[in-house]
Amino acid sequence: MAVTIKEVAKRANVAPSTVSRVIANSSRISEKTKERVREAMTELGYHPNYNARSLANKSTKTIGIVMPNSAKVSFQNPFFPEVIRGISMKAYQSGYGLYLSTGHTEEEILEEVKQMVFGGRVDGIVLLYSRVNDQVMPFLIEQKFPFVLIGRPYQVDESLVTYVNNDNFKAAKLVTEYLLLLGHEKIGFIGGNLDFVVTIDHMNGYEQALKNANITVNESYKVYHDELKEGGQDAVIELMSNEHPPTALIVADDIMTFGVIRMLEDMNMKVPHDMSIVSFNNVMISELSSPPMTTVDIHIYDLGFKATELLMHQLEDPTIGVEHVIIPHKLVKRQTCKLDHGASRG
Amino acid sequence: MAVTIKEVAKRANVAPSTVSRVIANSSRISEKTKERVREAMTELGYHPNYNARSLANKSTKTIGIVMPNSAKVSFQNPFFPEVIRGISMKAYQSGYGLYLSTGHTEEEILEEVKQMVFGGRVDGIVLLYSRVNDQVMPFLIEQKFPFVLIGRPYQVDESLVTYVNNDNFKAAKLVTEYLLLLGHEKIGFIGGNLDFVVTIDHMNGYEQALKNANITVNESYKVYHDELKEGGQDAVIELMSNEHPPTALIVADDIMTFGVIRMLEDMNMKVPHDMSIVSFNNVMISELSSPPMTTVDIHIYDLGFKATELLMHQLEDPTIGVEHVIIPHKLVKRQTCKLDHGASRG
DNA sequence: CTGAAAGCGCTTACAG
DNA sequence: CTGAAAGCGCTTACAG
């Protein structure tokens, strides 16, 4: 079937070990021999067997991508394809392949990660989420396996894990302050799944901003749903059932916002006239909502790219130690926010 | 580091070959021994080394996913995450992992595919596209490597390749006829990249419907752009520059349609009042355009799932031969189409 | 029903 | 500068 190193060796009149060294471009082989071997390789159409190579030198040249819920669920939100775009770019540049987790439940995912680690399927992992009571991260730390987290560690010491994150607390505080400045005081918070650390950070930023403005937090203004359009729709129903419904909404995710806008429309409420909305993420299609949504660009692509870069650092130099990178966020003002009617301030 | 078969063997007081047979659940091992070995495995936390296993029995238990443009580009369109959802689901059920292509150019991708095939990185491939002058498919055929195409072969004999596809010709004919019935005669066609076979099929279906209705095809009503929102926007500019612009549009892809709607809005044209639109794909967010778009549901998830199922057939039984599956399409009527003003028919 | 041995295709000390 | 040999962790005929 496939051409092996032996056949190349025979053709080039050298030992297999020499061929191996030519592949590795060892400086101990003469240019003349190298050329001869390379010629034989192209003539025969040689391609190295990755399994053999991996087995011999314990390096697979592939990166594992671990998603919170399997592609099946996660890929319903453009956040994940977008991070993977960034990961893919850097991985390709560095000559790495990508291996995707496919498990659904937390147990299945943990089992997959064990397979990746013990089975020698990948050299390192990019963890695309940070969740409360997570089992995966402690496992990776315990195994001293190279990985980078997108998000921030929780219930685990920061000094133990390399991560790339946004300052989600600050971002949430920012958008809340923005709405406050527009005169809103009844601000609803539509968080993502509370199992995820990003949701906790958003929520804390929101509360902090309210506290700073001397507004007491109304618990019935806070709801949590999965980051899907359905989540956004359900959230609106909940919030609008309040006796005094909010006049502005902070929404954890742009896809939810699509659902939110649609549901408000169904309720005959105009955005931004009757409801202001600020969202998070700025995925590719966010500008295509109508009205175009105001959202926080968290530079998803960069999160993926940078995380992979840090992973490469670790793989190239295992002694490099922990690194932390915060990707800046940026409020993108479009057309879902306006001054509150009853507002007395400017 | 990781526990090997040897250590398990020692602990269970058997030979490594016996452990191997227990893993494979060979019927030639006594239940008693199996139990003893399994106990040892869990006690030691044994996980098989995939590289060693793959090397020894030439099976990786992973599927390669080959995209037209690397994740970097492809993932900008929700079509791809959505197919991968389907692939992921079936792959997980069958105990397979997923390996993703990362190359950008056609040459890079071909090189990656060679790596997958010769390097023994995957057992089979799901090809997510069919393009004119494609090099990848002929290579896979020549190598007799198991793969399934999503799309249909072009410049290659159908009897040589297992594929899953929609009847894109028929679907395009259908939507054209639908617009004709609504009284439209000036129907613009916004195709995807003409390198892709699906675009050709769409175009032919469109022309056939026009011919059947005795309407001559206006070449300036046909434009082709990449399947991105920008593509949709550019297409609108082109088409609206016609002396007699179309009153209805067939758009190759929902994401393009988002761009189309936005651009028309900028031109102060109302959909569907001033322009009817039918689109293809029905991705997750399609119903969230405003107005919600009328589109052909091609059941993307099913394409991925079914393709993977067919690939499994091949892997389980290499003699099974070629299979062809057509996934049905369905026109989802929402709110981007209406009767043409000047129409005399009903 | 179980074991000893060869082999999968590489890499890498060890010699020279 | 190059080669012979051992080894990576499995699987699988071959014996018994």
Description:
Chains A, B: Keywords: DNA-binding, Transcription, Transcription regulation. Chains A, B: It holds the Pfam family Peripla_BP_3. Chains A, B: InterPro entries: HTH_LacI, LacI/GalR-like_sensor, Lambda_DNA-bd_dom_sf, Peripla_BP_I. The structure is a homodimer of 346-residue chains. Chain A has 3 domains: 5-44, no CATH class; 62-166 and 300-328, Response regulator (Rossmann fold), CATH 3.40.50; 168-298, Rossmann fold (3-Layer(aba) Sandwich). In chain A, strand 8, helix 12 (254-266) and strand 9 (276-281) form a beta-alpha-beta unit. Chain A has helices at residues 5-12, 16-23, 31-44, 50-57, 70-74, 79-93, 106-118, 136-142, 168-181, 197-212, 229-240, 254-266, 300-316, and strands spanning 62-66, 97-100, 124-127, 147-150, 163-166, 187-191, 222-224, 248-251, 276-281, 294-297, 324-327, 330-332. With 346 residues, chain A is α/β, with parallel strands linked by helices. The mean pLDDT of chain A is 93. Chain A is elongated. In chain A, the strands form 2 sheets. Chain A has a 6-stranded parallel beta sheet, with helices on both faces. Chains A and B meet through helix 4, helix 5, helix 6, strand 2 and helix 7 of A and helix 4, helix 5, helix 6, strand 2 and helix 7 of B. Strand 2 (97-100) of chain A pairs antiparallel with strand 2 of chain B, so a sheet runs across the interface. The first copy, chain A, binds a DNA duplex (16 and 16 nucleotides) through residues 2, 4-6, 14-18, 20-21, 23-24, 28-30, 33, 48-58, 120.
